[in-house]
Amino acid sequence: MQMVKQVRQAKACVLTINGGSSSIKFALFEAGHVLRRILAGSIERIGLPEAMFVVKGLNKADNFSRPITAANHTVAVAVLMNWIEERFRDGELTAVGHRVVHGGPKYSEPQRITTEMVDELHQLQPFDPEHLPEEILLTEAFQRRFPDLLQVACFDTAFHHDLPRVAKLLPIPRHYEAQGVHRYGFHGLSYAFLMEELRRVAGAQAARGRVILAHLGNGASLTAVHGGRSVDTSMGLTPAAGIPMSTRSGDLDPGLVWYLARTEGITARKFNEMVNFQSGLLGVSETSSDMQDLLEREPGDARAAEAVALFCYQVKKWIGAFTAALGGLDTLVFAGGIGENAPVIRARICKGLGFLGIELEEKQNKANAGMISAQASRVAVRVMHTDEEWMIAKTVFRFLGIPVGKENVHENEKG
What we know:
Layout: H1 2-9, E1 13-19, E2 24-30, E3 36-44, E4 51-57, E5 64-68, H2 73-87, E6 95-100, E7 111-112, H3 115-123, H4 132-145, E8 150-155, H5 165-168, H6 188-202, H7 204-208, E9 210-216, E10 220-226, E11 229-233, H8 255-264, H9 268-277, H10 280-285, H11 291-297, H12 302-326, E12 331-335, H13 336-341, H14 343-350, H15 362-366, E13 380-383, H16 388-400
Helix pairs in contact: 2-4, 3-4, 6-16, 11-12, 12-14
């Protein structure tokens, strides 16, 4: 309590860290009447020639873009921490919030990062070998450089922690469940943010209704929400499950593992690499993992056209399935890079879903408006800008017991 009291007396600032396979994104937030973003930045192309370190802020001194040498995450995080030491005076930074993709069976609430917790995260690496190693590296590096700075882990699986058992249980031998093998679901920070946004723009009744959230980006998933709680989600034990993504396959026939082992001698490691980095839009198109690239190529490239069609078809199927699970649908929300910025994809997904009560207003959809459903539509269809960094910051301030404004204000709000 003494620490929180001291924090409240000063202007509290939280730095968010969101580590990816080839990038580190970060942002600085200040608590007040509203949660205000002071700056945002990233280190991109880690492991590639001419990685870029970019910062954009409210102060001109915070705006820069420069190439750096970052052969791996260890080098990249050292560059970031050097900048932090230059940018912030002692005591100016209140805490750091880290996005941790997988909390495993133990972590379902934000937790202070300690040496003991990091040791436990190491034990959880088999649950998510694609994300956890880099995320653990980031937390360890910050602990070494800033041992007195509070660090908080915010878990992407937490939003789905209370999934109904029928949705969580995997149909494999029961003893694996005791090892923590079940459906976890991901994009939880995004979904938590979207539910707060829905409550803000549409009211508490809409947020308590039957909602499908479609986070469609490089990673993509859908979640069914009722009464404000996740009741089912397309990703499973790992983020590779569900719908096709930029390079991830989504759901596959498990017999494919044995088939490829017999016909090509593929190992478990190679199979994992294939379904996570060589499949999805990239695998089907054989040219690009980027949806905008594929849309530009589809008129003259049948493979690109098939990749786009497969993506839209699978999202449509999951919307139908989740509507059945919810017993109807009141609100459909599109978010993520594709969900927010690709009206043609939204239109193709929703085409033929009139029987569910989904009808789009073409002009609003093309404009990426906040509400894109037609007046006659029984289902409200919305486009929302999601903001995982904002949600991490708010989660850390809550963890500290510091109140922040109820309003959710950010730069890219949809009209």
